[in-house]
Amino acid sequence: MRAPLYVRPLTDAERARLAEGLRSPDSFVLRRCQILLASARGERAPQIATSVGCDDQTVRNVLRSFAAVGLDGCLTAGKSGPKTSQAKLDAAALERLRALLHQSPRLFGKPTGVWTLEVAAEVSVAEGITAERVSDETIRAAIRRLGMS
To answer: Do 65 and 115 belong to one domain?
Structure first.
């Protein structure tokens, strides 16, 4: 069994900042301040998690964040979402998609003469423009990158 994880002893300035954070309208800052102050009082992660209303792994993540980046970094919310986003369609595939959209969907066995995002996604995989079926949003983003509507 691992030893319990606690924050290092807090300075007076850090305690004051955490106490101020308890009145924050930002729930992210409020919860992190609650977690750090509870750990400074000697409470263990499962006990803090129960009182704050989160998972004990969340508590451990906050304590590790505090140790790694300090108070300012710990109280600043990071970017949510993916760290990177890579387009599913490269430049060559985009040009093939442009050429595809300038043709009628009926040429590809579709019962409509109007392109929809879903039809474009289906045809793009059937024509080898994409390796797998992509989402409608991927097609929408590709069309936007092409400057089309």
So the answer is: no
Please tell me the pTM assigned to this model: 0.56
Supply the range of the domain harboring residue 114: 91-139
The answer to whether the CB of 130 falls within 8 A of the CB of 89 is: yes
In a domain, 81, yes or no: no
Work out the end-to-end distance of the chain between its first and last CA atoms, rounded to an integer number of angstroms. Answer: 59
Residue 37, CA atoms < 13 Å, CB-side half-sphere: 20
Q: Are residues 26 and 57 in the same domain?
A: yes
Indicate the SS3 state at residue 118.
Answer: helix
Q: Considering the domain boundaries, does residue 5 fall inside one?
A: no
pLDDT (tens digit, 9 = 90+) per residue, 16-40? Answer: 999 999 999 999 999 999 999 999 9
Q: In total, how many domains does the chain have? A: 2
Answer yes or no: are the C-beta atoms of 33 and 18 closer than 8 Å. Answer: yes
42 closest CA partner among 86, 82, 92, 6: 6
- The CB-side HSE value for 5 (13 A sphere, CA atoms) comes to 19
Residue 34 corresponds to which amino acid?
Answer: Q
Q: CB neighbours of 48 closer than 8 A, spacing ≥ 6?
A: 34, 35, 38, 39, 56, 59
